[in-house]
Specification:
This protein is an alpha+beta fold and 499 residues long. Helix content is 35%, strand content 22%. The strands form four sheets. Strands 2, 3, 4, 7, 8, 9, 10, 11 and 12 form a nine-stranded mixed beta sheet that branches. Strands 14-13-15-20 form a four-stranded antiparallel beta sheet, covered by helices on one side. A four-stranded antiparallel beta sheet has the order 16-19-17-18, covered by helices on one side.
Length: 499
Amino acid sequence: MQRLRNLYKRQMGIMTTRITAFFICLVLALPTASSYADTETGSSVRPSTVAGLFYPSQPEALRDMVAKQLKEAGGANVAGRIRGLVSPHAGYVYSGMVAAAGYRQVDPSIKTVILLGPSHRFPLKGASIPHVKAYRTPLGDVPLARLAFTLQDEPLVESVLQAHSREHSLEVQLPFLQVILKDFQIVPILSNNADPEALAAVLAPHVGEDTLVVASSDLSHYHSYEKALRLDRLFTAAVPVLKFSDVSQCEACGKQAVLTLMHIAKIKGWDGLFVDYKNSGDTAGSKDQVVGYASIAFVDRKEASKRMNETLPTKDRRALLKLARSAIEAKLVKGVKVERPAPLSRALKEVCGCFVTLHKHGQLRGCIGSIEPVLPLVECVESNAKSAAFRDPRFPPLSREELADIDIEVSVLSVPQRLSFTDGEDLKRQLDPLVHGVILSRGFHRSTFLPQVWKQLPGKEQFLGHLCQKGGMPQEAWQDPETKVEVYQAEVFGEEDLK
């Protein structure tokens, strides 16, 4: 009998503990009376819930941390005004540098920010906008725009305060916005199961020239470093070119938010540009189980098509040309070491594509490059310089005797943008000779010509026909809309230019 009594007490103790834990979780998930005093009139303030956890709780420390990350962030430069942004939402030591790569390029005159993110803890049928007057961070209160309350009348939108009370995906975007923007308001939207296309149709008419749309999402979770790279590469390749089906298969907690932004981009005619990618194994964690982070920008198509401005100062150009020659010489001459520039400027640390071209007595002697932004510029130039000298299959490896006769040229590329066209005539109208480098892709075949190739092939049909032949495609393949056409611009400089 005593044994039964002891067993009963033990079971009751376990049950009491579970019930207590349940009610603690329930209480934590609910807003406090002091935080949400008047939800009917939207006169309450949603407090910070991850200050001291995801970012510093002291205003000065937080502002200093954000400013430092904005200053030191790399990533690709975005040509044009950013209208939409995919940004991560982990702790700043993990994802802050990736977020900063995009935020550092946002126009400070933005007045309204539509924040899209997932509800990690509370299930939602549609989209939810909280009926509060402001979001609070250690840097102050950020007011909700009038649009936030207007949208609550839409059938697709509800106001589920519990979903917002402990959700971090929107909150972690705010300190970056508070540092870079002068005066702005927000429309905070959480979404789990709302149709992204339908939500985009509701939001797009309200996206004006002074509006920024931010989709908050981390990528793959808790895979090995190598597997995360493979999984996340599909996401970073698909989002900029609006491959909705590919994104739907990706692992990303804010997938619905990203798809909504992509549909807005399609409606508004924005082009996507990859900015930066890292995972926690690159920043502040081990490489056993990592979480992926990406920054992807969307710009107005008209702005994205503007010519690439020369952004590299003469000092950085000289440093890259010296690095390229040093990298080649170090392979040819015993005892010579690669002279890498130090300290690195922000431009040299930015992730972008580049080509290194070698000429001997005015004739091509090697040319190898990377179109997609994968490596920091300084690493890209060093790697491609060695490849152009020793691994271009069209030429024998460069010899030590030839080195003095070699002139080196570097081409720094903008992020490729896909062109939509109906036929060959439409494509020709969109191409700008001596400005556009062109990439043609068809099945497994792919080829590119740098913008300077227009000097040898000035006719558009001649240029495109030779590009098809280079890639092993039919000579007229460029006229078929099924052929993928991308364009980029290049900042080109050589040793002869800087003498």
